[in-house]
TrEMBL record:
Record bears the keyword Lipid biosynthesis: yes
Keyword Lipid metabolism belongs to the record: yes
Full protein name: Enoyl-ACP reductase
Coiled-coil region(s): none
Top-level taxonomic group: Eukaryota
GO biological process, one term: fatty acid biosynthetic process
Protein keywords: Fatty acid biosynthesis, Fatty acid metabolism, Lipid biosynthesis, Lipid metabolism, Oxidoreductase
Family to which this protein belongs: Belongs to the short-chain dehydrogenases/reductases (SDR) family. FabI subfamily.
Molecular function terms, GO-annotated: enoyl-[acyl-carrier-protein] reductase (NADH) activity
Organism annotation: Chlorella variabilis (Green alga)
Amino acid sequence: MASQAVCKAQGVVVGALRTSVLARPAPRAGVLAPMYSTKTQVFAPRPMGVRSRKMATVTKASANGAGLNIDLRGKKAFIAGVADDQGFGWAIAKCLAEAGAEISLGVWVPALNIFETSFRRGKFDESRRLSNGSLMEFAHIYPMDAVFDTMDDVPADVKDNKRYAGNEGWTVSECAAKVAKDWGKIDILVHSLANGPEVQKPLLETSRRGYLAAMSASSYSFVSLLQRFGPLMNEGGAVISLTYVAADRVIPGYGGGMSSAKAALESDTKVLAYEAGRKYSVRVNTISAGPLGSRAAKAIGFIDDMIRYSYENAPIQKELAATEVGAVATFLCSPLASAVTGQTVYVDNGLSIMGLAGDSKTLDRANA
């Protein structure tokens, strides 16, 4: 589904993120209005027993309906893995833009030409439209293939592939160097990458090559990104990846080592939260998103079945909107989540908590 249609359907979500510089409505009486500002020290812990007049004032303002707001103006976000306007990466970019962040993209090299052509011709204009009427812009669009750390890792057949012709500096280290040159520092890093060439094969039929390819593209790429981009991140920055419930539940049909890759991604999230937290003072989290009928997800082959299954069995019976994932990602990238790190956050209408499929034929007593 297109992001614009999703945003219209999810007005509450987008409204919660509305932080337009051009127009920010005054609070109505009795309605929660923005409280958060760039003075993040109001969220900093204080010694027990110490209560300053300033903190008491903020607390009182909150009690009177000052509310909370996500304001990411002045923040720079690099998002790896956007190739069209349908997936979670695009939705995260749009929600971050709604909050005022400046966005740069790393687009898979073979998809770059189509993406840039569609962008120039206005095919994304409707899904680019923000709540203030303007169109989301990107500061930079870089070619990127996160499977390769340096050019020394690139085999000859890829170097000579015509889909890579005319592009330079697309390995992870080279892309990070470009970002450092163009921006200097960033505040937000988003990993929206996954690929498994044998995803439709059961694990028992997956080759070593296919398994390792899934691990490389879907999980190690996250480690590689943080290795190269971590030194570019400002203290207090946030890193986000996307996972799936197949990391710890059996999803028949989600094969080729992809479930293993997602399990590794979730484990790495915890370790990287510790290591990158200590080394770079950034937070690392992953979002376990429910099924979405994006172009990339259709490669699995049964995404429509998963969407129907989720609708029938999740506690909240509705299709997942990409902007709902974008909204949670924006929260996790904001100072409002300053104490949240190393977590797998489920955004799936609650499907992950269920232990019994309510639409199972075995529960149909009429046929028993």
